[in-house]
Amino acid sequence: MDKDFSVISASRQTSVRDLPSPRQLIDEVYASDVLTLDDLRSRLSKPVFKSLQATFERGADLDAGIADTVALAMKNWAMERGATHYTHWFQPLTGSTAEKHDSFLTPMGDGKVISTFSGGELIQAEPDASSFPSGGLRATFEARGYTVWDPTSPAFILRHSAGATLCIPAIFASWNGEALDQKTPLLRSSEALNRAVVPALQLFGASAGTRVSSTLGAEQEYFLIAEEFYYQRPDLMMAGRTLFGAKPPRGQELEDHYFGHIPDRVLTFMSDVEAQLYALGIPVKTRHKEVAPGQFELAPIFEDSNVAADHQQLSMQVVQSTARRHGLVALLHEKPFAGMNGSGKHCNWSMSTNAGENLFEPGDTPHENLQFLFFCAAAIKAVDEHQDLLRISVASASNDHRLGAQEAPPAIISMFFGSELTEIFERIESGEGGRGEKKGLLGMGSAVLPDIPRHAGDRNRTSPFAFTGNKFEFRAPGSSQSISLPITVMNLIMADGVAQLTGRLRAMLDAGTDLDKAVGDIFREVYAQHKRVLFDGDGYNEAWHHEAEMQRGLLNLRTSLDAFPHLTSPKNIELFTRHGVLNERELEARQEIMFDIYFKTVNIEGELTEAIAQTVLLPDTLNYLRDLYASGESRAVKGLIAEVEGLTDELYEALQGLRQQNAELGGEEVHDKAFHVRDQVLPAMLKVRQVADQLERLVSDERWTLPTYRQMLFVK
Q1: Which of 10, 490, 513, 601 is the residue whose CA sits 20 to 30 A from 463?
Q2: Which CATH class is domain 596-714?
Q3: What InterPro entries does the database record attribute to this sequence (predicted)?
Q4: Whether the Cβ atoms of residue 664 and residue 680 lie closer than 8 Å to each other
């Protein structure tokens, strides 16, 4: 128990920097480290600013002729805020971010230096790219890769204890233009969505200047543990999750942690995080305790999805770096503690016009309700036809531990609209029509179409893809992953569904069908064909799994290795290439990287399990047995010796089995290795853990050197 008190004592001594006042947060801090449009407007001439604004707001091509002027303004702004270096900040296929810093200072021939930053340096850089995963798109001896400025996401300042760096959001591509990052396909999918949705809106009377983009708000769940415990857990340090640990007598059973009082130390950490996020222009709105002990959440409000993806990566970085200053460690793994609630990243996704109209808002007028119904039909069609892509977008070795457990949805992709909307959909399909009499229903303005509820009833926490009033909540993404791929997939499949239904609607209107009847007919047809994907019951129930797979024909891709092969199916290759998001080579490369990362993740865990059991747990247990042998020959001691000796032998045998599986690897190809670690190494790891966790309950605290769940989850 002594080490518990030492952590508490250390927490009281943690120094905390001064945090801004509420008024300062509003007037001085928010977006102070972001190069905003107002900043650029004040530093650029009107013609230059208008040209740049067209790129920001309408997707116009960047005028290279203004690059030097913009670069000078950007450099001056950054140096005024203490920046000495700049970097193209990008998202390689590792799932994290990358940056190579270059100084603004340039040596002169007379021994002096000047500060320079050209338009060429702003627009493009050439980092050494040989060590980033490419999935075969480029050989390891080929180092050339290019980062290219993404002007649609604002530049920002990242601060550190000795200064600051100007970060320029960028894409990352090979020398021949193939995407080596997460942002490029995201931007391409955004354009595909705009190309598909605008023609549909024009049929509903939209103005000629309308543009459409997806919007997103990503909730971030994470665990906090005391830093002292973290450094005593090799599994947390190297794998991000506990490979051993007996479930404590008290976990989340009492349901008293959720929305509970936040301890002062944690609340101070959260305030520090929020101040930094505000300075970066990240509109974080919510903070609270989550379900499991030691688990918390922060959530922003809606933003353009490309900016939201950048902000999500920054949020993870700020949470983790700030925790250390407060004597804490933030764990972003999807399942850091077995038997406890996992951590996800719920992605609240919708579509909006440049005039601020949310296309999934039911609205107050007949016109808006017809439009809403049309886009609901497109969403149902998209999710049903592309269940595999949604599943692939959240697939990882770490998320496999979470999906279908505690708070996470199952791996089966289904949609939830709520009882009232589902009832209305059924009435449309049956042809009943008429006006509903329930309070709060909005008139469709047509005798053939029923009313739409403003609120679609209660939420379903087990649904992977739930409609929540004016948006869809994709609950399956994992807490540690980049959200760029899930957004890319949601944009792409929605673009495809809308484009197909728009062609059908235009043909019907050209043939003289009224708009309300045409929308009703299209919805009826789509709903009848794709309603199998709608489910409003308990997603955890095994009866649903059987019904979904055996009766409805929905995919049940239980593990990531079941999902990955679908990425390069003929259907998906055709979809990605037709919309210009990824070509066949780019898809094959991503699939190869997915298999490779899966194998390496589990392989590291397998070898780490072996090492900890061999060098820590077995010695701990043998030392305890030595203590027991020296304690006399009482009945209790003899009983304990027999029990511990039996489990020690079991641990040794299980360890030999794991060692053998770690050594075999399953073949030469990464696909074979991935299936080997899933089918052989993971079960062997579990056998070692099960015995070790039994021993943890028997060996004295003094001898068991790994910090326990009780300590890590409850000592803050």
Answers
A1: 601
A2: mainly alpha
A3: Gln-synt_C, Gln_synt_N, Gln_synth/guanido_kin_cat_dom, Gln_synth_cat_dom, Gln_synth_gly_rich_site, GS_Type-3, GSIII_N
A4: yes
pLDDT at position 435:
42
The pLDDT tens digits of the residues spanning 115-160 come to 888 888 898 887 766 678 777 776 555 556 789 999 999 999 999 9
DSSP characters over 520-573: HHHHHHHHHHHGGGB--S-TT-HHHHHIIIIIS------SHHHHGGGGGSHHHH
Same fold, 45-178 and 191-437+456-582: no
Partners of 83 in the beta sheet? 164
**Structure tokens belonging to residue 473:** 């909540």
3-state secondary structure 330-368: EECCCCCCCCCCCCECCEEEEEEECCCCECCCCCCCHHH
What are the domain boundaries of the chain?
45-178, 191-437+456-582, 596-714
DSSP string, 172-200: EEETTS-B-BSHHHHHHHHHHHHHHHHHH
Report the phi/psi class of residue 434: left, alpha or beta, with left for phi > 0 and alpha for psi in -120 to 50.
left
Output phi, psi for 437, to 5 deg: -110, 0
Question: What residue type is 442 in one-letter code?
Answer: L
The answer to whether the beta carbons of residues 173 and 188 sit under 8 Å apart is: no
Considering the chain, what is the average pLDDT of its residues? 89
Q: What is the DSSP string of 371-417?
A: HHHHHHHHHHHHHHHTHHHHHHTT--HHHHTTTTSTTSPPSS--EE-
CA angle 709, 713, 716 (to 5 degrees): 135
Per-residue pLDDT of 583-635, as tens digits, reads: 999 999 999 999 999 999 999 999 999 999 999 999 999 999 999 999 888 99
CATH classification code of 191-437+456-582: 3.30.590.10
H/E segment holding residue 248: none
Going by the DSSP 8-state scheme, the letter that residue 615 receives in this structure is I
* Of the candidates 416, 478, 488, 448, the residue with the CA atom closest to the CA atom of residue 216: 488
Instruction: State the first-to-last Cα distance of the chain, in angstroms, to the nearest integer.
Output: 14
The low-confidence residues of the chain, meaning pLDDT below 70, are: 1-18, 58-61, 109, 111, 128-130, 138-144, 253, 364-368, 406, 433-460, 716
Tokens 């002062």 -> residue: 264
Report in angstroms the alpha-carbon separations of 295 from 234, 262, 337, 435, 473: 21, 11, 10, 46, 21
User: Is the sign of the CA dihedral 144, 149, 152, 157 positive or negative?
Assistant: positive
Neighbours of 563 (CB within 10 A): 24
- Rounded CA separation 273/539 (Å): 34
